[in-house]
Design brief:
two-stranded antiparallel sheet; mainly alpha; about 110 residues; single chain
Length: about 110
Amino acid sequence: MKTTYKLPTKLREQLRTAYMAEYNAKSKSRWIREAIAFLLEEDQSLSSVGVGDDLEANDCLDTVELGDDIPESIETAIAVLRRQDPLMEGVMASIIRAAIKWRLARNGT
């Protein structure tokens, strides 16, 4: 499953630097899939999803190939978030941004 999401330009640059350091130019989706898996495993309450989203300008459009397993996990996470805040918008994009930030922080980037 391929999806499009928005993120701040600075975060996109940090993302590019991180996945290029670990893999190569064609491994962005792999890096993001791993980041989503880490986030969903380590932050099961999803308390970091959406944090600061309203303070940043999500001015960059990006796409990611989520593969076969991650969409199911994201659907479960969306259900959890919808129970917490039924009016939350852009939930999948918020999960992706939170996962990127989570992994960058974890790697010290």
